Hints:
The structure is a single chain. The chain is α/β, with parallel strands linked by helices and about 550 residues long. It has 16 helices and eleven strands. It has a six-stranded mixed beta sheet, with helices on both faces. A three-stranded antiparallel beta sheet has the order 2-1-4, with helices on one face. It has a two-stranded antiparallel ribbon with strand order 6-7. It is elongated and about 110 Å long.
Amino acid sequence: MKNIELKTVWKDLKWIFKYVKSFRFPLIVIILLDALGSLTSVASATISKYLINAVTGDIPLSALGWIIPVITGSFAVSLIIRSVTSKISVRTSTKLNNLMRQDVFDHALSADWQSVSEYHSGDLLNRMTGDVSSIVSTVMDTLPGFVSLIVRLVAAFFVILRFDASMGLIILLICPVAVVLAQLVGRKLRKFDTMMRERMSKSQSFIQESLQNIMIIKSFGLENLFMGRLKKHQKDLYDIALEKNSFAVKLQVLFSVLYQLASYSVMFWGAYRLYNHAITFGDYTAFISLAGQIQSPLVMLITMLPSAITSTSSAERLITLFGIKPEEPPPENEQPINNYSIELKQVNFAYNKGETVLENVSLLLPSGQITALIGPSGEGKTTLIRLFLGLIQPQSGTILIGETLSPSGATRPLFAYVPQGNTLFSGSVRENLLLGSPDAEESELRKALKQACALEFVEKLPQGMDTNLGEKGLGLSEGQAQRIAIARALLRKAPFVLLDEATSALDMETEQRILANIQAELKSRTCIVITHRVTAFDLCHKIYRIKGKSASLVKGEGAVG
Length: 561
């Protein structure tokens, strides 16, 4: 088990260092500057020996002529190193942080939809922010600090060894103790951090979901219930934080005892050597200072463990996320489509953890027609939409777009989709419309709004199409938001239009007008509608009822099934 844990940590560290490979030059500069700062610190402690010996008369006062300029120069060099290092570190850490977050965001968007949908959005956000920040902090702060401390430790040890071998041997005894302690606490800290990360993700997911549905919470009078749930999440975090803190306090006490024992050993041994005139008073003060240069790094190295362990836990969570396979890229040579129809033949589908949703479903959605999918909720209508979009793949059977293409990420540009609910983004009406066609001209925007029966109310908004909307189109009614979403889809100029309960918030007359406008363009488009409105059936060329895992033709000719 111990070997497995070490292998996992080593794998995570290799992933981190491989990831930051493109930032190795500024990172090396920071490490070298920090190492130089450590050498300067050791040099200052060493020079103090000569300063005190000059004052006590052990060496001529004339030595002060070079000691003072050297001490002043060391101080100036330390200031310059800190300033330059800080500037490089901020720039590099910001770039690395942005790059990692971009990669996580890009992978979440491009990965297999069904696999990504198993993660809560709050958990994904926690990985993109908290886990990335943890890794960046380790790379840009802990790693240079670790190297700097090692350099200071080694330099101080060899200086002491050169001055007095017996003093060096006493301090050398501290190192094995520190290494053993590091091994003992590493696994425990990783366990604590993994638990903390998991509970933080759950807490953030809960808060995010609650704020998104605050109207439901208020309308049902659930404020106290959700406050109780938040307190439960916070108590879980509190308990694990206390447990981790208790462990850290015990370590701190142990380290403090060992530190003091080492300090007293150096101090008393040095005093004994001074009493026997084996060393000068300057030597003694230099030994005390240099011993601190060794003991302090050892303690700091131990305290760096939590940060390093945190980064490996965070890396493990990101590695898991990046392990989700991406969607297949579109082919270099796109196949031409002779007709814009969709045909399903004996399609079977079941979600990973659920029962079969579709069983031996066969249907034909002809080009240039409106086809309605009707039936009770939860029977597979939205699942069919996801199959058309290539977000999921059937376990068996075939789906053909035109005569040769199978649904995938490559065929998704052929579809303009309006899902259930409010799907507007914060921003202006214009910005929401341009998501359908970024290069659309003013006349095209107005035409799409008119087709969606939205132009009239948009023109009455305070700034027209430039009126800013809040989250999920706050400022518009549900019906108005749906019409803008339909206009956005129509701007896409895709041959297939998918309306998944997209007119549920509209009155019957407006729904019929929108479908009639779409029907007028059906020479170049195929429309699939999920609806429960009987009034829309007259405009549909074909109607399939989805029920009991199967599809049956209710209206229309020439269908398979």
